Amino acid sequence: MASTLVDGGASHSRHNAKLAKRTAAWRPGILPFLIPLVILLFFSLWSYTPTDSPLAWLITIAWALPVPGVLVSVQGFILIRRRARKTHLMTPPAPVEQDFLIVLVPTIGRHDTYPALERSVLSYVEHLPKWFPYMRVDVLTEEGCEATERIDTLAASHPLIRVVTVPKAYQTKNGTRFKARANNYAHELRIDEGEALENVWVLHMDDDTGVGPDTAASLSQFINRQRRATPDEVKHMAQGILTYPRENAVSLFTWFADAIRPADDIARFRAFTGLGTPAAGVHGELLVLRASIEAEIGWDFGPKEIVEDARLALTFCRRYPGRSDWFNGRCYGASPANAKDFIKQRERWAWGLVALCFNRKVPLRYRWFLTICVTSWILGPLQHVGAILIMGWLIGDLNTSPVTQSVVVLWSISFAYVIWAYWEGLRLNAIASANGRRKWWEPFAVLLMLPLFSLLEGLGGFKGFLKFLRREENKFVVIAKPA
Question: CA-CA 20 to 30 A from 383: which of 226, 296, 428, 458?
């Protein structure tokens, strides 16, 4: 008996050591934020020259807008650092014996998206069953899609894979289209099959986003934790980290540009979703939701909805405040193949998010923060000193100071956060890659290209905003997915 207890204690200690090491690697650094902040504060306060010109007022507005989002994001990565220090209190991952997991993978089913779909689906059946003995992978396709035969062949290769085909004639009550329509069909099917239950979880994934052993272990920890939670603490939704391994990237440039996304997950999404109310929205990858809750909300948001994940999150905020969480698991996606696809992707997101910000069906108290973030995104290029200098040179006013000196402090905080986000985001993507680390020159290259990244993000956002103003018909643009 004593020997068993010693062995068990040693095993638990080894687990804690491994967990601590893994968590430490993902713990966001604070110096990449503090060092730029000190430098920027010194420079901006030293160079400030009072002015009340029209350009100064434009600068004041553009530089003040990002502050609420930045402060929330800083809170998010501080929360992760605090959690990392409590690793020894975490429950070891264990197989989920009392719940059923359904991995839902919607795909447009084109030949240029199939290689990424195959990579992703095979990762689910390889890594998830160890922790989820009761599970299934549903590949959600449209009737008559290009790659039907290849998808059917993939499903036949493993007993856990099932193809769910949305009939062309299928229509929702509110006329919802695109991915939300497909998701709604799957949710209605689960209701018909008696799977819309409290102990059934739906893991929403994109068709280019895979998982690894760490994903499965972290997800099992979250779901098992809900079994032990009190009724006041239990959660119904959770989101993990989206990363981009180097080997999934076709373009080094877009891989650098997408460093911002995992940083957003450990900052802004961690703060809102992790504290129970996903008012900043969620992304459609590594989003786990109780089937019973999804059955109550559904996906029938109407024909103009193209950011169904963000709309779902805001509806969840209203119905289940305090019931969402964040978990330290990662999934593995792929950056757009080129700058053109990068802009096209951002354009669709902005188009849908702007429409959501103006959607009066969602109470203002749930969309005001998202509205600030989207506005700041669209005006992103104006927040960079280089863009302001060019604008000042064109109008003959080279004074780039805002109306009041306090705004330069806010700008310093915002710009320091942007530097932190790309620095840490690149680190997270590198950790998720096969070699597990950055090359020495890559962080500096990313920082040098920040003005260009800001321009591309802002261009995509502004094009989406223009399409909204023109009342153009919404289109769910799906870019080619790298294998």
Answer: 428
Q: What tens digit of pLDDT does each residue of 27-63 get?
A: 888 999 999 999 999 998 998 888 888 888 888 888 8
Alpha carbons 461 and 343: distance in angstroms, whole number: 8
Query: 110 near 77, Cβ under 8 Å?
Result: no
Model confidence, pTM: 0.91
CA atoms of 55 and 277, how far apart (whole Å): 37
DSSP string, 205-238: --TT-B--HHHHHHHHHHHHHHHHS-TTT--SEE
**Token digits of residue 84:** 């990392």
Cα–Cα distance list, 394 to 55, 60, 382, 387 (Å) = 11, 19, 14, 11
The residues, ordered by sequence, that sit 6+ positions from 335 with a Cβ below 8 Å of its Cβ are 244, 248, 249, 250, 251, 254, 255, 257, 258, 342, 482
- Secondary structure (3-state) at 53: coil
The tens digit of pLDDT for each residue in 385-442 reads 677 777 778 887 777 788 888 998 998 999 999 999 999 999 999 999 998 999 999 9
Q: Which CATH class is domain 100-337?
A: alpha beta
DSSP summary character for residue 265: I
Segment 102-159, tens digit of pLDDT: 999 999 999 999 999 999 999 999 999 999 999 999 999 999 999 999 999 999 999 9
Name residue 372's amino acid. I
359: left (phi over 0), alpha (psi -120 to 50) or beta: beta
Q: How far apart are CA 436 and CA 421, in angstroms?
A: 19
Please give the angle made by the CA atoms of 82, 439 and 256, to the nearest 5 degrees.
75
Cα within 13 Å of Cα(141), Cβ side: 25
Residue 439: HSE in the Cβ half-sphere, 13 Å Cα cutoff: 7
* Least confident residue range of 340-349, 434-443, 450-459: 450-459
